[in-house]
């Protein structure tokens, strides 16, 4: 489904991704773990070109893009096959909850407003916000905003969902409701790539886990294997330290 | 003893001055509309760092902000006919324009648009740049085109930031239009001047015209409060 080959990213002189290779199969849930500054968010943002990668290949459902020669249509096609959930939610502040979810359908997919409204309302019901349709983002709690963020990403029915630390800016008591929704989404067989600091959540939800440090993938494996018996000392150390907290 | 004011003359001058109100309002509103286009274009040129055009627009903004409006009005009024005439005689271009029949109102409208456009450019640019980066990213991530992103997400949010500033500039422009009589436009100020010299009652007519300006500005301020409230409705934290 997603395949990343030898991906590099430089910010000026700083080499933040140093030849990343990984793939995610259809229906698989993969979490990327690692300390702050390891490049995991950058990696996620390179997949849909919110950051322009320096070189390498990004492939999503058979569409191969050499990042150095990526044209606008290539970037657009990667963006259309991915849906992204942001750490800061990034809901469109000037639009209501319903409009936030609808806008991709009406403006990008050219679906009629009535149809889009119906689809969006259904998705919002799934994330438990059916009674907040006409609210503006500022009138919602962080947890509610992030659930709208998930609904907005789901609405376009993307091949892959990208989650960039979806619970990192939430108050602790709101984390649960968002994680519950993400689990639901995973159960439905969506392909998901998640950058997170919630280790227990990652363990529970993921088919596979990728551990990153210093712009490189140190280790990857099934969730059980990574948590119970990681082969790299650094992974053991990181997981041990974070779980003890 | 002579009266301080000829109250009768003052009151009677109102209706005569008000007949020229469409000129004042027309120049102010017309130049606001044109300058919004100029301001938006130059702001986008600056934001997207378009080569060459970027240099031209910062030269334009710098020149307009660094020279008096009065001088700019004269430059437009005397300069444009000369430039058109030059093109006609040297190159045979623009032959369908007769510089002798261009109304002074047109020059006034042009001068004010050029002036206000430069000021709006900076206001619009900073308003667009004040929109959270995450809004741009989310728009790109769901696949909106740059135009859709600007029109549906960024401009509405930038507008609510810019409105107080735009409003102040518009009010200044309304008052600045009182300069247009110097190129022969008879606006409310020009009309007041004429009435004043006819009746030798300058103090009276200028009181009358200042009251008219004042009332217009109060009305515009009220309208702005309503417009701003509407543009910012999504920023209210309370559920309505």
From TrEMBL, chain A:
Keywords, sorted A to Z: ATP-binding, Cell membrane, Hydrolase, Membrane, Nucleotide-binding, Transport
UniProt domain ABC transporter: residue ranges: 2-239
GO cellular component: plasma membrane
A molecular function GO annotation: ATP binding
PROSITE patterns listed in its UniProt record: ABC_TRANSPORTER_1 (PS00211), ABC_TRANSPORTER_2 (PS50893)
E.C. no: 3.6.3.-
Pfam families with a match to the protein in the record: ABC_tran
InterPro entries documented for this protein: AAA+_ATPase (IPR003593), ABC_ATPase_HisP-typ (IPR030679), ABC_transporter-like_ATP-bd (IPR003439), ABC_transporter-like_CS (IPR017871), MetN_ABC_transporter-like (IPR050086), P-loop_NTPase (IPR027417)
SMART domains to which the protein is assigned, alphabetical: AAA
UniProt topology in membrane: Peripheral membrane protein
Localization of this protein: Cell membrane
Leading EC class: hydrolase
Major localisation: membrane
Protein name as catalogued: L-cystine transport system ATP-binding protein
Automatic annotation (TrEMBL), chain B:
Top-rank taxon, per record: Bacteria
GO function terms (MF aspect): transmembrane transporter activity
Entry membrane topology: Multi-pass membrane protein
Transmembrane residue ranges: 23-47, 59-81, 101-120, 179-199, 205-227
The keyword Nucleotide-binding belongs to this UniProt entry's keyword annotation: no
UniProtKB keywords: Amino-acid transport, Cell membrane, Membrane, Transmembrane, Transmembrane helix, Transport
Location(s), subcellular: Cell membrane
Pfam families: BPD_transp_1
GO biological process: amino acid transport
Classification via InterPro entries: AA_ABC_transptr_permease_3TM, ArtM/GltK/GlnP/TcyL/YhdX-like, MetI-like, MetI-like_sf
Domain ABC transmembrane type-1: 21-224
GO cellular component labels: ATP-binding cassette (ABC) transporter complex
Family in the record: Belongs to the binding-protein-dependent transport system permease family.
Name of the protein in question: L-cystine transport system permease protein
